[in-house]
Amino acid sequence: MERAMAGHGAEEHPHGADRLCEAGDRVYSRAVRRGRVARRDAEPVPCLLELALLHPDPDDMDWLVPTSPQEVMTRLLRGMYDEVSASQRRVGSAVAAFERYAGLGRQVQPAAAATEGPAIRVLDGLARIQAAMDEATQACTTEVLTVQPGGIRREAELSEGLHRALALRGRGVRMRDLYTHVARHGQGLLTYLELMGDAVEARTLDEVIDRLILFDRTVAFIPANTDRTMALELRHPALIEYLVTVFERLWRLAIPLTAPLPDTGIEGISHREQSIAALLAEGHQDAVIAERLGISVRTCRAHIARLSETLGAASRTQLGVRIAQAGLDGPPRGAAARQVSLPAPESRTAR
């Protein structure tokens, strides 16, 4: 795994955490003593980031904080037990490294140690994110909660985590997934849910929060940048409790995937168009509405055009008035809650 995560720097620093190069040992030791090190000072030793001995400071990305020597020791011991049958020489190297890190651990001042903790960890790069997710999957025994934003789920996205989902199902772990209503139209999602059987329960909403994955209400993963090449691993109990509460409230509002979406109670206006109307009434632009509902801007504008035609509006300003007159300026409430008559379109001459 270390070589897989090493990337371009592996040729210059062909070693593991148990046998650091001289420059890497010097920078890591300084980071442990001081609690952090400037990112520019670590540029000559990319091995420290590649081996996860340093990682970005969540509060200031220009600085790197060290993984605690205790955690490094735990990692080394885990690897030692896995490889002991294959190489006795590797055992001796790991034991020597253990002693070195133990010595560094005694030098850490309490204030410096407090800056590095397991509550929030920045995962920089897809390889580290995947490794952390795999580790959390292996440790999970009860429940996984996920929020999957966007529209129709691509098969590549679904297959990416399929091995984890199957492993969880095999251990009897229950999974609950939240998607947008648009995801209902993707065959890939339906195939995935059929494969998982009753191990997964899925519901949908008009819009959801950004991606969230919660394992056993103990550890959570959320994106740390827009292209999702960085993630935060959260273990702070207060943060976890907050995220669980958000999920549960969204879950109660969501509609089971096996149930149809409620009728709007307004002839000629679909549930999606009702959601678009409410967001238009809030003053959002087309691109924002499309992103929140998980559809393309082109599809969003086609729905807006149908709304204008159905409501008899000749301009965006007039459409806003018509939306309010029809009672579409609030969240969807379904046919049972609202039966309205559309305002009569004005004559062409009046426009």
TrEMBL record:
PROSITE patterns in the record, alphabetically?
HTH_LUXR_2 (PS50043)
InterPro entries, A to Z:
Sig_transdc_resp-reg_C-effctor (IPR016032), TrmB-like (IPR051797), Tscrpt_reg_LuxR_C (IPR000792), WH-like_DNA-bd_sf (IPR036388)
Instruction: State the organism's lineage.
Output: Bacteria, Bacillati, Actinomycetota, Actinomycetes, Kitasatosporales
The record ties this protein, via Pfam families, to: GerE (PF00196)
Region: Disordered, residue numbers: 330-351
Domain (HTH luxR-type) spans: 262-327
Q: What is this protein called?
A: Helix-turn-helix transcriptional regulator
Signal sequence bounds: none
